[in-house]
Design a protein that fits this description.
The protein is mainly alpha-helical and 426 residues long. Helices cover 46% and strands 5% of the residues. The chain has helices spanning 2-15, 33-46, 48-59, 86-89, 103-113, 115-120, 123-140, 167-170, 197-212, 217-220, 232-251, 255-276, 314-322, 356-368, 372-388, 409-421; strands at 31-32, 71-72, 151-152, 229-230, 277-278, 283-284, 287-288, 293-294, 354-355, 394-395, 402-403. The strands form four sheets. It has a four-stranded antiparallel sheet with strand order 3-4-7-8. A three-stranded antiparallel sheet has the order 9-10-11. Helix 15 crosses helix 16.
Amino acid sequence: MDVTWGSAEAVLADNWIGASTVPSRGLYPHQWSWDSAFIAFGLRHLAPERARRELVTLFSAQWRDGRVPHILFNPDTPPEAYFPGPAFWRAGRTSGLIQPPVHARAVLAVHRADPAGSGAETFLATLYPKLKAWHGYLRTYRDAGGRGLASIVHPWESGMDNSPAWDGPLSRVTPVDPAGFVRRDLEHGHAADRPSDEDYGRYVRLASAYRDCGYLDERWADVDGGFTVEDPGLNALLADAELALAEIADVLGLPAAAATHRESAARVAKALQETLWDSASGFFFARDVRTGERTREYTCAGLLPLVLPDLAVAPALVATATGPRFRLGEVHGVPSYDLTAADFDPGRYWRGPSWFNVGWLVRRGLLHHGEHALAAWLRDDLVETATGTGFAEYADPFTGTGHGARSFGWTAALTVDLMSTQDTQD
């Protein structure tokens, strides 16, 4: 275990660039939003001051409307190192998209790891209004369906870029000719592990269209061929984030605000179950807001509502997780896609492999719902697989073989966290 801890610590040290941590030196040479939150969970055990700096740096790039952009570009990185870079987005030092709101939970955990240091830096007091504005943006500007759920306007916003859940809505998008851009990701990873050229062409088309409407969500509904989807993963994490924000408000001595955040969490959780839960299937499916139809793909995003402690349908969802589609407790980690699907691919990005952040989140959910033995098994498997793959970005659920980048930031950080917290949820 000491070797594992030291190796993970070395990855995080190597990926630190002075004010934040890059996910990987080659493939992802900037700061990513939800990556930084997951990285902070690990850094709090090693260097809580760095964990605080990580999150403060990210929120320094928050937009006036409250959104937290999914990339904060490092000005010392050559523009040609990553596509799409700052020139594409035309948004200064950031992108214009978002990622799932795991930040409030990270802020709370980082504070608890070093309350004295946090207090001296007024860490909670500084970030609380920023987190409140972030959640407010999601609950208002992004409630495209009018049901109390936040929508994503691009697959990248889910954090699960090429998930099969997006195939239906994406089919309306005409891809950009691959000759019109250069994929820098293929310089650092195998094409078989990455999204296809056709998918990437659709991503570029969508990102361009959202940029060209000024990143104004109220105009997005009128853009032909657009993408507007209610994602169960993002909304489950939003409800959980509101619960974390309530705890932060309690620490700051704001009981009325704490009550408001708990009410908000309950509303999102209620809308999530009423809108995206399918009782016949025992699963949460995404919903295409533009057609009103649910997608029918079983992806790991549909398991993330387990993070909610009062989830009434948790027993049915655990049954799906341990059934043939995901085989939780039998394979490595949590597969990103239905193991029984004809197009399941154990090595291609979010179309089959197991990701360490998803496993970490599902483990938290299992603990909430009394599945302690399964949570302990998952913790041990995640640590063993992370170590055995050189802290790979993701892994084959059957063989445990690593795919994607190595020395990946959140894999190393969450390994440290799992080794530190054992069977607790904090």
